Amino acid sequence: MSAAPVPATGRVGGYRWRICALLLAATTINYIDRQVLGVLAPFLQDEIGWNEIEYGYIVTAFQAAYAIGLLCTGAIIDKLGTRLGYAIAISIWSLAAMGHSLAATVGGFMLARFMLGLGEAGNFPAALKTVAEWFPRRERALATGIFNSGSNIGAIVAPLLVPVIAVTWGWQAAFLFTGVLSATWLVTWLVLYRTPEEQPKLSAAELAHIRSDPAEPSVKVPWLQILRHRQAWTFVAAKFLTDPIWWFFLFWLPKFLHAEYGLSLLGLGLPLVIIFLAADVGSIGGGWLAGRLIKRGWSVNRARKGAMLVCGLCVVPIIFAARADNMWVAVALIGLATAGHQGWSANVLTLPSDMFPRQAVASVVGLGGFAGAVGGMLIATFTGFLLETTGSYVPVFLMASSAYLFALAVVHLLSPKLAPAQLETPRAQA
After folding, report:
1. Do residues 421 and 234 lie in contact, with contact meaning Cβ atoms separated by under 8 Å?
2. Which residues are within 8 A (CB) of 184 and not within 5 positions of it... i.e. 6 or more apart?
3. Using CA atoms, how far apart are residues 95 and 76, in angstroms rounded to an integer?
4. How many Cβ atoms from other residues are within 10 Å of residue 409's Cβ?
5. In CATH, which superfamily holds the domain spanning 14-210?
6. What are the start-end ranges of the H helices in 149-203?
7. 221: helix, coil or strand?
8. pTM, whole model, 2 decimals?
9. pLDDT at 124 over 90
10. What integer pLDDT is reported at residue 219 of this predicted model?
11. For residue 412, what pLDDT is reported?
């Protein structure tokens, strides 16, 4: 039985934050699992014998599955429910992560990466749905921000943890260990998770607090209707043009640092940690800057694009990293760029809610995520061919340095005022 939607008073309890902690752990593991290959890539290349083009294909396999998963998993999770849907997603990616340890050929790694991408695509749709089930609207932004920070935590933990495991027990152990982390989370999830109405440890006061919002209309907006609006293409274009740069950072930075500066497996840890710590700072700073500008009286349109401009300018100097004689200069420039990307993303991810009604936001986000994953496929294949034929990272860094300002120009062209989209409302039944 559902609690009445009345405001809770007094102390309501904090069981919902335990659920948020589970989401944080899942997102952290999600990013650790996807980063293992990137950290080990320079050394697996010698071990397995793949070339740059084949590594590009391996990364593309992950991106392709991730794109497919983003289109499909939301509907599957809606149908099966959060508990079972999330469990299936993490079961797939846990088995796929451990399956990497059995791969001995390019084809084997491509299969393992494809299955990993398919499973990992379910993390964010499931986590966002869980937040909607367990938190009133006024707390959802905070809960989402907490669990989403796991993406940066995972990007920091992987280069610290994976090299030590690989050097001590072999590269296969790194994949097995992260797969075991996923499996451990799965058991914990199945034991602890129930919907709020079914959770016996939840107090009546906290349940009333969770259900204190007015009932939300559940109206599905077809994709074809959404895509008729320039506002949707604004978000799709922003993701397509800039998400691939982040995927490049995740999967190619270890190879770049190894190739250009001769870093050992253990030596990669500190530079990568610094780079992704900078990304964490940028993620917070980009959101803070836009909010600060709005508080100073700027319009949402001007503040959002102003913050995006600052973040885009932070990425421009990365072009000099490709030829930096000193590794720490390159690390500083790349760290500035990752901070710029995450600050940019913090603002781009608000565009759907800036321009679309609530019932359409999830669909717009899914379309943009698909576009970003497709862009990631293209840059993975392109980078593989580029490095195999020229051995130079300069063209990729050049693309990265210009992508954000170009994307901002496209955003402004498509939505000069970030005006809300006027969607058709369903006609009342006669």
Report:
1. no
2. none
3. 19
4. 11
5. MFS general substrate transporter like domains (1.20.1250.20)
6. 150-169, 171-192
7. coil
8. 0.83
9. no
10. 61
11. 97
Instruction: Return the ∠ at Cα 248 (arms to 275 and 267), rounded to 5°.
Output: 45
Pick the closest to residue 369 from 242, 221, 281 (CA basis).
242
Angle formed by the axes of helices 15-48 and 106-120, nearest 10°:
170
Position with higher pLDDT, 212 vs 383: 383
Residue 370 belongs to what H/E stretch? helix 358-389
- Fold for 223-420, please state it: Growth Hormone; Chain: A; (1.20.1250)
Question: Domain segments of the chain: what residues?
Answer: 14-210, 223-420
CA distance linking residue 343 with residue 310, whole number of Å: 9
Residue 47's pLDDT is what? 86
pLDDT of 216 strictly over 70: no
Residue with tokens 């900078």: 278
C-alpha span between 155 and 29 (Å, rounded): 10
Measured distance CA(61)–CA(45) in Å, rounded: 17
Average pLDDT value for residue range 130-138 = 82
The owner of tokens 């919902």 is: 16
How confident is residue 218, by pLDDT bands cut at 50, 70 and 90? low
Cβ atoms 362, 300 nearer than 8 A: no
Tokens, residue 339: 């901070």
